[in-house]
Amino acid sequence: MTPEQILAEPPRVLTQNQRESYFERGYVTVESLISDKTIKRLNEVTNDFVEQSRSITRSGADYDVADDHSADSPKIRRLKMPDRLHEDYWGFATGLIADVAADLVGPDVVFHHSKLNFKWDAGSDDVKWHQDIQFYPHTNYSPLTIGTYLADTGMDDGPLMVVSGSHNGPLFDQYDEDGSWVGCLSAEDASTVDTGSVDYLTGPAGSITVHNCRTVHGSPPTGRPSGRPLLLNAYASADAFPYTAHPQPTANTGKVIRGQPARWAHHDPRPCLIPPDWSGGYDSIFAAQDEEG
Question: Quick check: 96 pLDDT over 50?
Answer without folding.
Answer: yes
